[in-house]
Every structure is written in C-alpha cells, then in structure tokens.
Amino acid sequence: MNLETCSLPAHLWRTIFDNDRPVSVEIGPGRGEFLVEMAVAHPHRNFFAVERSGSRLRAIRASIAAAGVQNVRVLRGDATCVLALLPDACVATYHIQFPDPWWKRRHHRRRLWTPEFVALLARTLLDGGTIEFVTDVADYFEVARALLRSDSSLEEMALPEAAIAAGSTSFARKARQRGAAIRAAAFRRRLR
User: Fold this and answer.
1) How far is the C-alpha of 121 from the C-alpha of 79, rounded, in Å?
2) Which residues are annotated as catalytic?
C-alpha cells in the first residue's frame, strides 16, 4: 500500500465513534492509565490511542472495559504509519507521554520524534489543536522541543504547572521515585 495515495474518509471519526465529538489521540499509551483517566474525566470527548505492543493493547482494552468507558478506541500499530493515514485537520489534541528514548546511538533511528513525525502531527491537527509532550529524559525533551519549534505551523504555549506535576502513569511515578525532573511542553496549531 502506498501511504502517499491512501487516505481515510473525512468522516473517519464518525465511522469509528458514531458521533462528531472532538478527538484526542494518545501515542504509545503504555498501560493506558492516562488514557482511561482522561476518558472518564471527559465523557464528551473521544479518545483514540495507537500502541505498538500487543500485550499492552490487551491490558489497555481490559482497563477500558473495567472502567466502562465508551469513548475510547485503541489500535495496535506504528504511530507514524497510522498518522500518515489520517485526514488533514482531524485531531483536537495529541498526548505523547514518556516515549522510549532509545538510549543507544545505533537505536536513534527508532525514536518517535523526527521531522517527519512532527509534520504528520501538524498536518492532522485542527486549527488551534494542541500537542502535549511529557518526558523525564532531558536530552530527548530538547530534541522534541526543537523539532516542534522548527515547524512554522506550530507555536509553543505556556503549560500550567498542574499539567507538568500531574500524571498518574507508572512512568511518571517511577520518574518521581528516582527524583527525575518531569518535563512537559505544549504546542498549538496556528490558524491556516
């Protein structure tokens, strides 16, 4: 399949959720703690997540069922491939928390944050839509922030201290236990 010529219908989210509510997308939801918490707290918003791991996907689906939320869908796949298929201007918010930094230099090609990934985020964001990024890896945070800043369609926004301090995911708890600083940034899609 050629991703450049393949597109999903403009009514994609209506097909998936059977409504026209705004959609937030989480890339790499891990165990799904943040995803389920957000879905419960915001029942009038839809949440879509892309997870690469099959075992994590099953655990997330079990958490969704246990919480009884109906506004969440999870897909197993590579985030970059999935985003390439999304129509333009269809996502209200992206949440990217604690992505794998792929520490070894020879593994850097596997990193999520690339110029291509940022271009996909920007293309699929609604005007005024946001990208929220959280990590405890200072170097990777600066890489991601530089890439986001380099896209002229995005503008950095102030992030409330509560958003930086928040986070009930296992990654956030482990980072705090280690005494690691949690870094967060938010970018907004400029009006087209």
Assistant:
1) 10
2) 100
